């Protein structure tokens, strides 16, 4: 008998080989385990048979147990329903919002969102109302609760949180606002060297003849005090070609005052026949009202009618002229170059001399000196550079010529007006009411139903978003939600990488650089890590002074430190950082930071916390994918992995990319709405459409990655007949459900870089083969049209 190995048993299965054959034969004193088995098999024939039978039985039993276990598990999973609160909420929300009478292959937006508006009535806080508005409402209500709550002195709450509550109180305290009246405005006019009433109203003819006004000084002080551009645009920002350093940009005015002011949310269509006429009438009324009010308040007399008429006419004409000058430009970034300060001011002076026979030899030296007064930065006029685009080169001599050929008293009047207009809505209620009534026709889909308390919440959130976030943030977020979102983002990135590797339209070098950029893309999720560090929030709001009865001054406390602190950054290294507040219901890709920002507010139902990952990937996943794709859209592709504006793609790849994007431009150009003459603007919305399309594709593949790692998920109640893929697309469609008027769609088509929400669903899914497959949409159906499907990412 072979003692080295036992034969396979009758089932053909090899048993353990005895390692000590000789020992086993010679004595019984060997290792128990090996021995017991050896013994068992090495006895008589009877025992051998018995052994075989028992082995078979044991094996059979094992197999039965395994089969039953597998069957049980499969059966359980098949019928397993997710009955968590999150799942039930998602299920009910989707079920009641969807219109099952519509064929998903015919109009998927209608299918997903057909009954949404009925289920989610607009409370009137926002002109249009979407799934995201429902989150905004929740954020506002939570903000209101938080700001209305008492200061928690026992709990070591940061001082800035108390300041936020006081800020809110000051906004609600209309009595104090009324009592202060125009006195606060006078105070700030004085700070920027402007009179309480324009000189045109107070000087004699003789005085006016000799009147001189240093407009450049006012321009600089207004910029520093009100953080706004009047005639000249100026800002310190990361160098677009080397983002770690900050540089000075100069040119077309782009920054409005951060204070709430009229016309900021002008929703009226500018191409309307009566727009210009209506605007002129409203402006005339407001100008006359404000000038009269100020004059009476200061002098207790009525202004002279002819001076009032003259001032109004001057202001209307100057405003129109400035609007025309500024709105003339569309090119923003394509042609930015730099010149040192002296070089550029010489150039300006020469053009001025040609145009007006006047010169302003040291214009930038003067302006920049005024600006940096009191700021701890020394400027070298021979070495420091000014960054300008072609449009800025064109604009600056034009505006300076215009101002230098306009009477000084008119220029003073104009700068007085712009400054007062920035503050006027935040003074006494009779003035604010008059102006709001006048400007009402410019707010389509009026939001008059919104209470002052909500407006104050929005305001405090705008100025003190981090302090509000401190109150609203769930402290378990960092450990609970953030890792899950990070895993999702990582799956989405992996899908993107895998996709890039398969691309045939990209050459090897560009592919490599693209992969590197996606690797370098960092993410800011939820809220900054430092938010709950002791003392950190108070450092963030250092220098801010807030009282509970000084509304306008509270806001000015923020506004006044904004520009000086930006100017200080000129010599500082630029860190990649959060570019938004955690309470913002949105997500961003910051090109210069090569970062994705996903604030905590958007990580809420119905964009997140949906119970099943298939829903989360379809909803927030497609948003994360959207932001990732932005880094490689028609603009994002021009910023390299460090966030520098640079050509880092090869010419041939750029050519192919541009050729491929034409498909999207053509596709989106074809979308129209009955009753609106303009079609969707394919060219203008290209970047967003690329991001939408890429976003869904990457999220879809990322979900399949998730399934491979974590296994399948239970079913959603009421959707047992839906496949995973179907649910994914329903979740994607559902986040774009919206109630909106035709007027607003028309306005959005004119001004928004995003396609209308309905088109974001339809346009994206018409390009998705996975969608067509999931819903078995026949080729040629509306949601699976014939011809090429556009695809880049
Ligand atoms: Zn976007």
Q: Might you state the CATH topology name of the largest domain?
A: Neutral endopeptidase, domain 2
Uncertain segments: 1-44, 71-79
Q: Tell me about the largest β-sheet.
A: 4 strands, mixed
User: What do we call the CATH homologous superfamily of the largest domain?
Assistant: Neutral endopeptidase , domain2
What small molecules does this complex bind?
zinc ion
- For the largest sheet, list the strands in their spatial order: 2-3-5-4
Please state the CA-atom Rg, rounded to the nearest Å.
Answer: 34 Å
Q: Return the domain count.
A: 3
How big a fraction of the residues is strand? 5-15%
- What's the total helix number? 33
CATH class division of the largest domain: Mainly Alpha
Structural class: mainly alpha
Cofactor: Zn(2+)
Main location: membrane
GO cellular component, one term: plasma membrane
Transmembrane segments: 50-72
